[in-house]
């Protein structure tokens, strides 16, 4: 036991000693490692040297590839020359790679080596096989080709090049009456047209072929002229402003799903009415607030509506959200002919029939104008457009003038153009998508003259381009779609014109003019008609020997036709009779007392006539009221007051023994 105990103690001591030694060695190694890490430094790279090395390597590879191409040509002279060039380049590359060069004296790199190294700085990838450098004449030709735009290299493309009017397409609206309303949807897949014929034509580019016919024609507002059309930003809803005070709401298929409420025209305060009371002239969708739009009317108001207020029960938007009441210089109603919203939705502008231009800030409560010009035009304003920056306004009037206004100054217009005659209160004007040009529609100044679509420079207001329409045709509306880069113009002869550039325009009408005509479905069906010659049938051939029997008579034809008619005509089947129900169905009358009403009426009558029915002597019961009837005669007694003042009654009562009088025959018996 003692020896075992001793041995265990010795083992413990040896283990502690070994542990101490190992920890000591570990500390020594850690100290050595830390001292070694302390002596290390971060490695630095010379980027200039690395770049020079890469450059020399590229030069060497280029020389070798050039040499290989020269050898492929098979020319000994060119091969020797290429070999000498390759050797020279290799020597230079080798000298540069060693970092030293030798001159005639055997010293280090001198100025000659430096110049040779600089001469090889211009390197390029290997040329394709069969490449031949251009001569001086081809270089001159390339320079002459680039001289086409040399005149306006510093000024950019001319304005005429930016107008997509290289190609023209004519479409028919349906009638020869003026087209006063057009609209494009946002993506540019469909457009609308409406006018004095009270019809709405819906065109869709995806379904249109070279026939250029409308996909659908509807009449949403009965016999009212369409003044304005507008698509919602998402293209799902359409607003139709017509001669009635109610705005029509259509879906993208042209189906009418709602309208705005009609106001009360007998109320003096227009803010108390729920809707317009006169013709609606224009509508604009809010570009910021989804589902909101505003309309202006001849009742002197601009009203804000929202699609969320549409009620499914009444199929109407029952009330507007905001209202603006317009006043003229005398404080009376001013009739707005057009309205517009700025691109950020913060400003609302209206052009009135008295020639005034009024602008408000679009806030929750709109009271007074922020910009007002009482005599902007000498006639009614037909169109108002905001610039893209929202700081300028473009107005078009019936006085034949086009004016540009700044919202910072309302005393005088910035630019003005006169002599733009128009006859329609829907005449249009606007900005190009990038604002590089202004377009305006015009009517012929003289009878039988030519209307026009003119493009003006916004800086000088000079005409830079003009499209004319002869034979007294007026241009009324115009839309320049920014995505398609195509222009849609409506004319007074009931036609539409689309202008586009085959190079710069996208999709739209370009894909329709090249699409082949679709065959009608009726032509695709092959219809076989059976020709019946009854005279050739066997039954019509004569059987007898006499001439009359051999001839085909009219009687035989009629007999055959009657026989065929009886075979085709189905026998008439009388429908089954419905079961009888109700008090008087089928000519039968139910017994009284079947209902509670008839039962109560029957009981009340029996109760009142109980004594009358109980008395067997009917004559005595009637004479009981003789004195009262004589004192106060009623009804028939007054008629006999003079002719028969004393009433006579039959006093004789027939006895049972007396012969019964023959009763009058009320109905004749049937004859046997």
From TrEMBL:
InterPro entries: WD40/YVTN_repeat-like_dom_sf, WD40_repeat_dom_sf, WD40_rpt, WD_repeat_GAD-1. SMART domains: WD40. Residues 1-12, 66-79, 88-98 have a biased composition (Basic and acidic residues). WD repeats lie at residues 273-315, 374-415. Transmembrane segments: none annotated. Residues 17-28 have a biased composition (Polar residues). Gene3D superfamilies: YVTN repeat-like/Quinoprotein amine dehydrogenase. Residues 1-42, 56-151, 651-672 are annotated as: Disordered. It comes from the Eukaryota. Pfam families: WD40. The keyword Repeat applies. GO terms for cellular component: nucleus; site of double-strand break. Keywords: Repeat, WD repeat. Belongs to the WD repeat GAD-1 family. This is Uncharacterized protein. It comes from Mesorhabditis belari. The lineage of its organism: Eukaryota, Metazoa, Ecdysozoa, Nematoda, Chromadorea.
